[in-house]
Amino acid sequence: MSVSAIPNPKKTIQVDFPIERVKLSVKNINLINSKYTFSSSNEIFNQYTYSALELLSLGVYVDINLNNISEFKTEITVEIRRKIGSFNDSYEITKSNDHIVSIYDCIAKLTCKSPEEIENLKNEQIEKLKPSKKPNNLSRNNSNTQTSTTNAWYEKKWLVIFLCVVFFPVGLYGLWKNTTIANNWKFAITSLIAIIIIASWGDNSKIGKYTKEELPKNFSYDIIKDESNEVLEKNQLYVELSGKLTEGQIATLAEELFNSKKEERRFYMFYQLKGVENNVSSWATSHFDPELEIVITGSTTAEDVNKDKLSEKIEGEVIGKWDENKYTFSNLIIYKKGNKTFIKTVFKNGQTSDVELEESKTEKGIRFDYKDGGYNGEYFILNNENRLELYNSENKNFTTATPK
Fold this sequence. Notes:
Blueprint: E1 10-15, H1 19-26, H2 29-32, E2 37-42, E3 47-54, E4 57-70, E5 73-82, H3 90-111, H4 115-129, H5 142-150, H6 157-166, H7 168-177, H8 183-202, E6 206-207, E7 210-211, E8 221-226, E9 234-241, H9 247-259, E10 266-273, E11 284-288, E12 292-296, H10 301-311, E13 317-324, E14 330-337, E15 340-346, E16 352-361, E17 365-370, E18 379-383, E19 388-391, E20 397-403
Parallel strand pairs: 9-10
Antiparallel strand pairs: 1-5, 2-3, 3-4, 4-5, 6-7, 8-9, 10-11, 11-12, 13-14, 13-20, 14-15, 15-16, 16-17, 17-18, 18-19, 19-20
Helix pairs in contact: 1-3, 6-7, 7-8
């Protein structure tokens, strides 16, 4: 089953306001919703772009185009596009439609405000960012100093011990400032914390929630594209792997790549498999934002082994077996049983399906269609190189499975 790219969600409306009034609102969307960060603009063509982050993805760009219809009427077009790739799934479209609703809501709220009110919103945000000033008490006497020392937080034993456990830097400071704890206890507690720190530094097998594993002996990788950007405070690498890795091995490689570049606030890595042509999506991703997160989109080595075992259980004459490693990461087996032809799909999660096919000859090779016309008119062609080509209803070859 194919995963077809879906056009960027877009919506156009007209409002009864001059374009300059709407333009002021568009330029200040982040005053209403801080989720959207101003990215770029083209004042000549009245085009503005914001960006927004999303969970487990690089997020989206929000393109806003303004068109002057008349003196008191403006056309607004909002289009959502992914920072990487295109939209493939319905839930992505749902998220994008939510962005469109949020953007129009912000524009509506700001357009109803006067320029003075918008300026006041800016000033309020600036005031929030200013550090608070505490008055200095210059008139201290000995009595006040003694009372302050007695009531100081570091004179409370229970609080000092608690901080030594949950936040040792502050706890140690309070420990040595305390006047009631004996020195031998101070040395003992300090030594114990030092031993714990040294022991934790010695454990290099963990990175975040992942346990690192040694990379395979013959493993290699190439950085095929580097889209790091200091202005955006991010590193972004596209890496080609010589073979599949386990989650623990990806953690080891991710740490190595992380240490290879100047540290930024975010670090994204996209892994592709060598020999897999025209990847639509990465086989796996990892990112530090700030903690390490790993997502394996494709099939793992263990899943491949399980797929191969299930692919052996065929009741009939096998025409061929193929590995589809671009969309579904599944095994495809075409076989004959009696006078009928079937295709068996073995997915990476162990699920299987058997569907009857109809066979015909073409110039490109043998064509197989779903007998009941399933999957929106998709079909297969077994070409002369024994590769199984998959086509959609528009006769577009969206992926090709390789022989096993």
